[in-house]
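Lab notes, practical 5.
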Amino acid sequence: MTVVLEIDKTLNSPLGRKKFRREEIYKMMEIGVLPEESGWELIDGEIIHQMTIGSKHAAVERKLEKYFEMNFGDRLMVSGQNPIQVDEHNEPEPDIALLIPRDDFYAESHPTAEDVLLVIEISDSTLDYDRDVKKIIYADAGIAEFWLINIKENTIEAFWNPTNGNYYEMRIFQQGETIQSRNIDYLSFSVSEIFG
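Output from the prediction step:
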């Protein structure tokens, strides 16, 4: 019990914590302090280590990426596990982002919130984090549509209408129902196609 309290004091202390900006992270990558490859993301100025992806999570991600590429690849760009520049303290790496196509494939800079048509997080062990932290970051950035694929429940939680740092509308789509994007009028599919 004492150890937990001492740890809590340390974590809540204003000493010893630094809020990083995107530019600082890029500089650390440039000089080799941080590896350039994925495995972490910048959330509220903190470097967050991403969880290892389980096989079901990976399968759902691959299935969605293939579906989007095959059916809509000429109208949008599919970006998996890549950064979105939200603000100076946030650069999340959603599982999938559907982007406005660009000839340079975003070589000059990562996409910003204005480039995102739909952002998708696939969740099992990170469900609360994706709902309570990342959803708010996406809403605060003004990303019009966010889907949370809940592997535990075999549902898709869809969020729309970002207002004052949260999404004003939400609906849960179950097996057998068809989800229709509100931001991409040609995008719809059965929830059962994802979960089998």
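Observations recorded by the TA: The chain is about 30% helix and 25% strand. The radius of gyration is 18 Å.
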